[in-house]
């Protein structure tokens, strides 16, 4: 139910103009071709340049990363890119940029928890921007990512701080931080059926608040070594950003 709901919701988010569905422009692609690459795992801070391996001819999986953003820029930098996402509309964004800017990349539709489309030890790098908020079982993502990466390859991930899911949504919209939910949190389990139906009709994804034990500890449990970390904020008028960084990015190495 969750996958079907969120696939439909993200298709609709393209029409709604969600930030993560707006493709990069020609200038950004041109800069990437020159080696000036800005990739985002979280809303506002770009990935540090020293987090990337040599990109030319590197096999890269952009995991749950449709939207015409990370994939086209990595392809412009010379990488062999596969974009994997549950939303056909998000993948169409990547194909649109590739056609516009004469880039070569592959798009595959699927569930980020199931990477059976790929053999073990296929990729030199996985880019996984904020997206596992939309699945209930994040440890399956880390297991599959570890399997399809080559030895000494990296997983670069962005995810939200579980504190984002503590608060009452209606009060939050009024500017009030009222604690309501427990972590881990599941919209699918706590929302009434009529609210889930409303969100389905309006293209609003179901979300899940994962513990840091699952987000960070889960990577370590499957064999990754965390070698990089930073925090980020929504910024702008976001209420929680006034108090705490609400996003996390990690660089995780698969030891060969």
What topology does this entry show?
Elements: H1 2-16, H2 26-33, E1 59-63, H3 70-76, E2 80-85, H4 88-100, E3 105-109, E4 123-128, H5 139-148, E5 149-160, H6 169-173, E6 185-186, H7 187-190, H8 193-202, E7 208-209, H9 212-215, H10 217-221, E8 224-232, E9 247-254
Helix pairs in contact: 1-8, 2-3
Key features of this structure:
32% helix; 10 helices; two-stranded antiparallel sheet; alpha/beta; 256 residues
Q: What is the 3D shape?
A: globular
What is the total tally of β strands? 9
Element string (H = helix, E = strand): HHEHEHEEHEHEHHEHHEE
CATH architecture: 3-Layer(aba) Sandwich
Rounded average pLDDT: 96
Instruction: Please report the first level of CATH classification, the CATH class.
Output: Alpha Beta
Low-confidence segments, given as residue ranges, are: none
Spell out the CATH superfamily: Vaccinia Virus protein VP39
Helix content: 25-40%
Structural class: alpha/beta
Based on CA atoms alone, the radius of gyration comes out at: 18 Å
Strand order of the largest sheet: 3-2-1-4-5-9-8
Note the total helix count: 10
| Biggest sheet features | 7 strands, mixed
Structurally, how many domains make up the residues?
1
